[in-house]
Amino acid sequence: MSATATPDSASRKVQEVESITIRFAGDSGDGMQLAGTQFTNVSAVLGNDIATFPDFPAEIRAPAGTLAGVSGFQVHFASSDIHTPGDTLNCLVVMNPAALKTNLRDLEPGGILIVNSDSFGANDLKKAKYTVNPLEDGSLKGYRVVRVAIDTLNREAVKECGLTPKDSDRCKNFFALGLVYWMFERPMDGTLKYIKDKFGKKIDVLEANTRSLKAGYNYGDTVEVMPVQYRVAKAKMTPGVYRKITGNEAMAMGLVTASTLAEKQLVFSGYPITPASDILHQLADMKNFGVKTLQAEDEIAAVGIAIGAAYGGAIGITATSGPGICLKAEAIGLAVMTELPLVVIDVQRGGPSTGLPTKTEQADLLQAMFGRNGECPVAIVAPRSPGDCFDMAFEAIRIATQFMVPTFVLSDGYIANGAEPWPIPDLSKLPSIKVQHPTGPNSSNGQTHENGAGEPGTFLPYKRNELLVRPWAIPGTPGLEHRIGGIEKQDGTGNVNYDGHNHEHMVKTRAQKVANIAKTIPDLEIEGDQDGDLLVIGWGGTYGSIATAVQRARRKGLKVGQVHFRHLNPFPKNTAEVFKKFKKFLIPELNAGQLLLLLRAQFLIPAQGYNKVQGRPFLVSELEEAIEGILKS
Amino acid sequence: MATTALPTLKPQDFASDQEIRWCPGCGDYSILAQMKKALSTLNFPREKMAFVSGIGCSSRFPYYMNTYGFHTIHGRAPTFATGLKLAQPELMVWVVTGDGDGLSIGGNHLIHALRRNIDIKVLLFNNEIYGLTKGQYSPTSRVGTKSKTTLQGSVDSPIRPLSMAIAAEATFVARTMDLDPNHLTMTLQRAAAHKGSAFVEIYQNCKIFNDGVFEYVTEKTTKSDNAMFLEHGKPMIFGKDRNKGIRLNGLTPEVVTIGKDCALDDVVVHDENVENPTMAYLLSRFMCPAFPEAFGVVRNVSKPSYDELQAKQSADALAKKGKGDLMKMFKNDDLWTVE
């Protein structure tokens, strides 16, 4: 937060800063996710670049006031191009002692700490396991502490609305929000409209929340408790119309856009699982796009229904997280064997087993790559940011339908729930998706049943095109009746075949078909230095942190390039060429080194991993250190 | 159903070019033959029929039918069939499964397909044994069944397929047997005509690993005393002399001799359409030797099918919101313009 003080029209000091990172933290029931989302929306509409990081517990309502129940929402907003939700906080809003205890370590020295001083009673302190009141023991003297009696002030503001004391207290997130709106010069209009839309039918609640928000704002304006006001100018972004988007929203829209442009029905079948359920929620409201959704009885049924739909000529999609992928593995193998287009979205979370359901991780890459019996290749793509989920969802449908192959999309909890500004796409500039279905027999004269090519005039479900892709015949089409299944096929006819040589031929054919996808994907692009000492290699949701760290390293004069894989199977065809241009390789991943294993095995590069599995994204600072470290070694 | 003139199909038109690999004498041969016969009477285009199966001897069925077919994975056939029917509601979708496939590994999917009432026809070939894996006991094996995994006889209670189907809210529940071709054909025709999930249990003899397990209902000499063939609107009577019947004593059924214990009027009249599933459930519990085992349509009630309701919701959404507009979807949030 580099700041220059400028005199405002009033006597109040306003500081112009490039970026601010703020976190709202409170009890799960305190409405912190709502406050953070509203703050984000308002900042985005104001023209700042934004990146967000919601961080909430797996429990819906852990006992109030306890450490386990703390929910946080972090927003990074800036007048420059940003890629991460910020390493350290410039401002922290805490609604209770538990929130203070679990979040204080992320606040920068001298940072602003807004505290709801009403919630620091003996009982509150005990629930947060404080033996001494931190507001009184001097432990916060390194911060600019702003004590605000939020409970009292809020109750006073809403007392004429006729709400119960409990309902009155539920407005206090808006009081806190109003206060920070004032502090960061955010207008209230957007949130006032939101309150009106949301509570329009409950006049008393509408009125109370409105009063609470305004009271918070006015409190900042009139009571000189706040150290300073901050101004973050508009970001210089590519011209266009923007909205804010989360990864899960972008994913759902990407799927619908691809199916609409391909003029195909989309059948989406899922089973509730954090953090993927939102995709099903979104699609359930898109029936007018030819979308059918089904909440299945379990993860296996969800993928089975999607595969059945794909056999029926629809685009079959399922979304889940790591534990769900385990259950779907056998069915995905069937889709590989029967060569049907299937899209499997894995919104990764901390594992193994139930792991850390609401926290992020990238540890399912090898599961997607190898987690099935037999030689069972699939295509894999991974979005690098919330907005990129749109493009990768689209790309997954393109690959699955063009190559008749199950295609994984590896998202993660961080980009699924995180948000960024997203330019509304120009429909005419989106890639086209053409899906073709045979309407008649495809065998040619001279081919016989014995050589695997079928009788003339018959339909051969496994006759391949130049990319080794079989035709996608839709049941209901006269003359193309055929049977498929999980038993090894004779190439061409698709008949059951147990011959060893045929099996080897089919194993190689399925692998080559997936390898052929590389002919249709873009080359890997190097960002930063085009050759030199170090190439930093990433994939998936870590793009923002890596890109920022590489930029900072280069500003220090280090010769560093960056590549970020969005296609993980197959890799882009120029991958080996790119690697030849660098001496050292650093692969930061939120796992124990999975891309590292793949790249070292396939390209024989002496890469080193930088690995973290703490359920949280990389800090830019730790990646900077890692880059400097490897260059010194 | 199609309205234009269709080429008349014969049973052999439904045969695929694949060599059938079931053991000689397997009950599956009869089921395959009766299926071809039943389908040929439906006046329904062959290309609109699909057979979906799981894993097991019975699940090879789709390979032998010249329709669309999908031989899937163990226990999951109802899920693939559900997806297929959702994508192509005009298809007639059959699921072929067995006691291991449908009631053990795939029990969950069977329950949910039935309660969802999606328009698929589930045929459960019950031979009370695992055949393809060479003779382990199954979830329908009777207590005491000696098999490779139950050397001293099985100790766990079998599941009753019809009871489970009724509990799962199936709208059509029937039972038939491999060795009664006419009854089998008729039952398949009835299942085909039902709109919604249909469940048919077929007693099927495994010649190799469980030979004769249903002999008491299939053998001519004992069949009429041990099997009761249900007909809608007709009294529940059975026996060599057609003089035995079922009477209800409160909610307790009892076997009576007509003319001795009671009059014909006292015998329960079968009503397959009755909403209340109690009688259907009682029938599903009938087991020899205490009771005759029930064959025919046990339950047949009408309820909108899942695929119809889905289609209706899609139509409603379309009417309410208009055809999906991508630009409108993208912009359905707060927007700002960067100049």
Structural summary, described in words:
The complex is a heterodimer of chains A (633) and B (339). Chain A has 633 residues and is α/β, with parallel strands linked by helices. Chain A has three domains: 3-231, 3-Layer(aba) Sandwich (Pyruvate-ferredoxin Oxidoreductase, domain 3); 243-429, Rossmann fold, CATH 3.40.50.970; 527-632, Rossmann fold (3-Layer(aba) Sandwich), CATH 3.40.50. Chain A is 35% helix and 22% strand. In chain A, the strands form five sheets. Chain A has a seven-stranded mixed beta sheet, sandwiched between helices. Chain A has a six-stranded mixed beta sheet with strand order 4-5-3-6-7-8, sandwiched between helices. In chain A, α11 (299-311) packs parallel to α12 and α17 crosses α20. With 339 residues, chain B is of the alpha/beta class. Chain B has two domains: 11-233 and 272-307, Thiamin diphosphate (ThDP)-binding fold, Pyr/PP domains (Rossmann fold, 3-Layer(aba) Sandwich); 235-269, no CATH class. In chain B, 30% of the residues lie in helices and 20% in strands. Chain B has eleven helices and 14 strands. Chain B has helices at residues 27-40, 77-87, 99-105, 107-116, 161-167, 181-193, 215-218, 220-226, 278-285, 306-321, 326-330; strands spanning 49-53, 68-71, 92-98, 120-126, 129-130, 136-137, 172-177, 198-203, 227-229, 237-238, 244-249, 252-257, 293-300, 335-338. In chain B, strands 2-1-3-4-8-7-13-9 form an eight-stranded mixed beta sheet, with helices on both faces. Chain B has a three-stranded antiparallel beta sheet with strand order 10-11-12. Chain B has a two-stranded antiparallel sheet with strand order 5-6. Chain B is globular and about 95 Å long. The model of chain B has no long low-confidence stretch (mean pLDDT 96). The chains are: A alpha/beta (633), B alpha/beta (339). Chains A and B meet through α1, β10, α9, α11 and α12 of A and β2, α2, α4, α10 and α11 of B. β18 (483-485) of chain A pairs parallel with β2 of chain B, so a sheet runs across the interface.
